[in-house]
UniProtKB/TrEMBL annotation:
Positions of region (Disordered): 81-111
Keyword Cell membrane: no
Protein name: Arginase
Record PANTHER family: ARGINASE
Low complexity: bias regions: 83-95
One GO CC annotation: cytosol
Chain intervals with Polar residues compositional bias: 97-106
Keyword tags: Hydrolase, Manganese, Metal-binding
Family that this chain belongs to: Belongs to the arginase family.
PROSITE patterns in UniProt: ARGINASE_2
Species the sequence originates in: Okibacterium fritillariae
Amino acid sequence: MRYLVVPEWQGSPSARAMQLIDGAEAIRDDLPASRTEVVQVPLEAGSAMDTGVHRASSIQMVREAVVATLERYDRIAREGDEAAAADTAQSADSGPDTGSATSAAENTEGAAKAEPVLVVGGDCGVALGAIDHASRAHGSDLAVVWFDAHGDLNTPESSTSGAFGGMVLRAVMGDGAWPLTAEHPVADERIVLAGARSFDDAEATFIEGSGMTALTVERTTGDDLVAAVEASGARCVYVHVDLDVLDPARIAGITGPEPFGVEPATLVPAIVALKERFTLVGASLTGFAPASADAADDDLGTILRIIGALAR
């Protein structure tokens, strides 16, 4: 597995948002250096660009950088390491190669050969580009399992905060404000939201009228998750973990704690069960915002167990 560290904070509604940078860096220190790359995040907050999403311009810049990096990994898998040198030279001369001239067949071939990538945030917004990349390659074979204490199902019209972190999963399904929506949406029938226990009214209404599956904390088990993905007909899975899905008694460095969450001892084997049954084509882990370096150390054991389950 490769690791792509993306210390984005602009999608978070929290006053502690910039501590997400510290969290991403703390996790990076425990990842294998030879397998890890960092996406540079703009220093500025960014503008809304008439989207209704706070800091949208910076979030979009990060999304493009994530997609360009994943496409470079696909090209390396398809053509060999010489592609990396060519892409690096092109990036230096003219900016990142978005792969727009690459055929759908080549995209699928490269993604099939490439190792899965774990995108480490930062806030949940880092998952949009990664899931869109996976959806382009795998189409209706892809299901998304989204572990989160919150729904992340608002749109700019329904959001009370304007923060993209509360809209990401809806954007994955193609709803929201362009350019912060998926180019290759995942159908709601192939979305599994697991462990969520805090919803806005608009999010609860959307879930009731959609074909997505929402599993309570009690049903966030390997058996229930595997059954939900099997029912979608998917053969591949993208797994997203926002660390606030965990019970706050088990992890301190999160910005939006919600009581009565998932136990690490439940989450880790659930991820393993998904990997044993389906092909993992990508993953993301977000939401780590430690109050200090010492506090980060207290949580890293739990976080590394989750990463180990994704990477094994």
